[in-house]
Amino acid sequence: MTVVTLGVHIVDVLARPVESIPAGQDTHLLEQIRITAAGTAAATAVDLAKLGVPVASAGAVGDDELGDFLIMIMGRHGVDVRGVVRKPGEQTAASILPIRPDGGRPSFHVPGANLGFSPADLDPGLLTGAKVIHLGGMDVTWGLHDPAFFEVLRSAREGGTVITMDLLSNMPDLMPGARAFLPHVDYFLPNEEQALAITGASDAEEAAAKLLADGPSGVLVTLGGAGSLVATASGLTRVPVQEAEVVDTTGCGDAYCAGFIAGLLGGRDVVAAARLGTAVAARVAGGLGSDAGLDGLTIERIDGAQGAEGI
C-alpha cells in the first residue's frame, strides 16, 4: 500500500439538523441520518481511497455487528482492511452525533476496542514499503505508547517512509502521552485546541514553534474557520479556509490530513499540500459525515475547480 493509516476506528451515526433532544417519548423529524466509517485512522483511509490513493488501515474493532459494518464499509470504499483486528468481547468504538443547524457536532462516544490496540496486533508486513504511515489518534490508543512501537516507526523512517500524525481528543490529560510520539513524526497535524493543550502556549504560532522543537519537519495547526497555520524551518505560512456552505464539520480534520498526504505523494511542497488538504476539507464540510462530498472526486478535479487559487 502507498499509505497505511494506523490507529482509531469508529462507527459514526449522524443526524441533522438537531436543534434539541426531544423530551420524554417525543419525536423530531429530521432531514438526514447516516452511518459512516470514522475516526482519525478509518476516516482518513476512506477519504484517501476516494481520492484514488491506495491505502490500508490498521486498528482494532470489536467482534460485534458494528465491527462487521465498519470493516464492510471500509472495504467497499476500497480500503485494504487486513490490518484491522477483531477483539473478542470488546465493543467497536462508536459515536452518536446530533448535528446542529450551524454544523456543530456534540457527541456521545464509546471508545471501545481502540484502547486495546497494541504493537502485538500489528502485521509488520503491512507497513513494509509504505510511502506514508499516518498515525491517527495516538492520544487515545494507549497500547501503542510502547518503546516497541517507537522502534517500528524509527525503522520505517530509516527506510524512507514519511510519518504523519493527527490526534482525536481535546483532553489535556492525554496530551503528554501524544507528545512522546513527536520525535518519531515528520508532520504533525493537530487542531488549535490540541496544539495549545499539548504545549501550554498562548497562541497557535507559539504552539507550532514549540512542537517543531520536538522533532517534526512540519507542524500544521488547523484553525477551523480561520484556515490553518503551516510551520516549518523556513517559517510560518497562513493557509486560508475555502468558502463552503457548512452542513457538518465532522471529519474535516481527517479530510485535511487525507488531502495533505495526497498532496505530498503528488510531489507538492508542504504549503501546497496543505492547500489541497483545505480543499478536501471544504468538500467534506458541505455534507453529512466524514467522507461527504468525495464520491467521484479526484485530485485533478479539485485542481481544475480551484486552479485560480493555486491549489
TrEMBL record:
Boundaries of every Carbohydrate kinase PfkB domain copy: 14-290
Source organism superkingdom: Bacteria
Pfam families with a match to the protein in the record: PfkB
UniProt entry keywords in alphabetical sequence: Kinase, Transferase
Protein's name according to its UniProt entry: PfkB family carbohydrate kinase
Source species of the chain: Sphaerisporangium flaviroseum
GO MF annotation list: kinase activity
Entry keyword annotation includes Transferase: yes
Keyword Kinase: yes
